[in-house]
Amino acid sequence: MEIFLDSSDINEIKLLNKANLVDGITTNPSLLSKSGNDFKNVLKDICKEVSGPVSAEVTATDLPGMLKEAEILKKIAKNIIIKVPLTWNGLQACEILSKKKTKVNVTLCFSPTQALLAAKAGASYISPFIGRLDDIGENGVELIQEIKSIYKNYKNINTKILAASIRSVEHVIKVAKIGADVATIPTKIFKELYKHSLTDKGLESFLSDWKKSGMQI
């Protein structure tokens, strides 16, 4: 499973990308607005740091506006992926852009039928929001399973399932077990993936014994 960071914080992205464990980045208008800097410069910096896909979302809601903004975003860097909402206009934009060989991430997906339509529109990625479904009492992880089952039935569907709105390490484990192609993770959750109390205790014990031995490497 590929791991993307859901972030526009270039400093954190640089820090976590040092081990080359980050496969891509997802951003959205909310994240970019929090940076306080010009969004184009932020995206340029991110695309220089991470060679994988970097999702940049349109803010227009009408079809002509979406297509116009997509052209602007595409010029920022070669690894920009255009992100559109799963609306009727978003699906139309996805179909038009996909035919032009532009990769599209269709976001704000909350049902299997939405995911099916996005795939038919040529989406490179579908982003089901599992945490937000959990918030309203539904099973977000189950949606990933349903989409996976549907996509498996058709050889002509090449859309990658990008599990989004991940709120916990348990979410990451569950979507990995199902076989999501990608999980986009907030930096806070990413840092929790490599932590375990027994690892810390074990390392402390090993180093203590080594110090007592008086030996050196």
CATH fourth-tier homologous superfamily: Aldolase class I
Under the CATH scheme, the architecture is Alpha-Beta Barrel
* Mean pLDDT level: 96
Report the span from N to C terminus: 37 Å
State which percent range the strand residues make up: 15-25%
Provide a descriptive summary of the structure in words.
The chain is of the alpha/beta class and about 220 residues long. The protein has helices at about 10-15, 30-35, 40-50, 65-75, 90-100, 110-120, 130-135, 140-150, 170-180, 185-195, 195-215; strands spanning about 1-5, 25, 55, 80-85, 105-110, 125-130, 160-165, 180-185. β4, α5 (about 90-100) and β5 form a beta-alpha-beta unit. The two termini are about 35 Å apart. The model has no long low-confidence stretch (mean pLDDT about 95).
Task: Kindly list the characteristics that best describe this protein.
17% strand; 51% helix; globular; 11 helices; TIM Barrel; 217 residues; alpha/beta; eight-stranded parallel beta barrel
Write a short abstract of this structure.
Helix content is 51%, strand content 17%. An eight-stranded parallel barrel has the order 1-2-3-4-5-6-7-8, surrounded by seven helices.
